[in-house]
Amino acid sequence: MAVRACGLIIYRRLQSAPSSRVTDGIEYLLLQTSYGTHHWTPPKGHVDPGEDDLQTAFRETQEEAGLQASQLTLIEGYTKELHYPAHGKPKTVVYWLAEVKDCNTEIKLSEEHQAFQWLKLEDACKFAEYEDMQATLKEAHEFLCSKK
Question: What is the pTM of this model?
Answer without folding.
Answer: 0.92
